[in-house]
Amino acid sequence: MSSSELTWLDAAAQAELVAKGEIEPAELAEAAIARIERLNPQLNCVIFPRYEKARAEARSRGAIPGGIFRGVPFLMKDLIQTVEGEPFSWGWKPFKDAGMVARSTSYVAAKFRAAGLIMLGQSAVPEWGATLSTETRAWGATRNPWDTARVTGGSSGGAAAAVASGIVPIAHGNDAGGSIRVPASFCGLVGLKGSRGRTSLGPAHADFWHGLCEEGALVRTVRDAAAALDAVAGYMPGDPWMAPPPARPFRTEVGQPPGRLRIGFMDRAPAFHPGLDPECPAAVRGAAKLLESLGHQVEANFPAALDDATLSSAFGKVVAGGEARQAVTVEKMLGRAVGPGDFDQWTWFLVERGRRLKLVDYLAACEWFNEFSRAAAGWWSGGFDVLVTPTMAQPAPELGTFKTGPGEHPSNVGVRLNQVSPFTTPWNITGQPAISLPLHMTPGGLPVGVQFIAAYGREDLLLRLAAQVEQAAPWADRHPRVCA
Question: What is the DSSP string of 2-66?
Fold first, then answer.
């Protein structure tokens, strides 16, 4: 097997080679480190390298846990999940400058380690994960390997660039408004967000942004998405939610027939949205034709609640409240007050907005989440199995799109964020599983993701269908311009 062939194997295939004794974990780690050193100057996606520790772990083959991904190189995202003794920054310059080091290992980080993954470093994120482009004062701009003038997405932007370019086959991500699915769409990857309560944010956090966040991974294949969910899923003591336990491991759903499904699709913008890039509805219509050819009942139908303009307002209030609360936490961690000089303008705008927010308005937004969730769930209980939408309203925009321009009010950044991403947030609110698949390419060579959403707790059905689609319309031979 050539070096190039080995690079583009998914994590499951690399783990199989290790299990068979056909390659050593140390070889995989060394090759991935070489790819980081070659590609990271162009992409700027890997931070906090830990190469010597990773090399030592990889050489101690007997000490590597015998999990699903034993011996496979990996990146941890620099947000929420932590490893004791390792640095973290949340994409924020004050934390980077202070040399912050984690005092404990989070549950999901421990589960990734138990799966046998070898952490080579961490992946870059936007400041506090609060925007859709990974551009920070702390680390600079992370660039899209398909077009380095464009964003990778956020907040798992560094992870997406690393996986799309072939640096590693799998990297940690988390998703509170689309932060796995957004970069998956922009970078041509598979990105799965599980049902609410499928993964744990503990022990440091009970939830994040009123239950919006789930943990997962950026990967290139559906089977890796399923196996990654197996690796990190599961209730931990004290978690505020618990998703229905699966009947069997998620990875065993891959390859199982999904049956004939009733599938609705949305190939237009929500009523409150100014409109989509033509490539995005084209991607959905192409997926609908493919699904029909696979024997499914497909029709233009979707939850009416998706046209409710309240969505962006309620989501914005909950996020702002969460960022204001986070500011209180970091002041304790730094031992000082924080101010506008510590932040990008957009992040500081969120903190200030959250501080001004009345409790009654915050609680009203949380209550609206419930109203929206019940309205959306009624569509599934009315007889549909899966909804198909664009993942994003456009392909990856240019770097700087989500920065505040000279003399511009930061609220305009929020307008642009909502215009680019109207389709991912609803499923964080409802807690339903959603997956972005790289089913379309623009004439200019940019990936466009298509999003599939199932009812709460039905990752099994989603993975069966996604695997069927992957087999019918494979994407494994597509590689970006900047790649290994």
Answer: -HHHHHTS-HHHHHHHHHTTSS-HHHHHHHHHHHHHHHHHHH--EES--HHHHHHHHH-GGGS--
pLDDT one-digit tens code per residue, 21-32: 999 999 999 999
Listed in sequence order, the residues at least 6 apart from 432 whose beta carbon sits closer than 8 Å to its beta carbon are 195, 376, 453, 454, 455, 456
pLDDT tens readout for residues 194-231: 999 999 999 999 998 999 999 999 999 999 999 999 99
479: in domain:
no
DSSP string, 271-296: TTS----THHHHHHHHHHHHHHHTT-
Residue 141's domain comprises 3-472
Residue positions annotated with a catalytic role: 77, 155, 179
pLDDT in tens, 395-434: 999 999 999 999 999 999 999 999 999 999 999 999 999 9
Q: How many domains does the chain have?
A: 1
Residue 81 is assigned to a structural domain of this protein: yes
Q: What does the alpha-carbon distance between residue 35 and residue 38 come to, in Å, rounded to a whole number?
A: 5
Tell me if 482 is assigned to some domain.
Answer: no
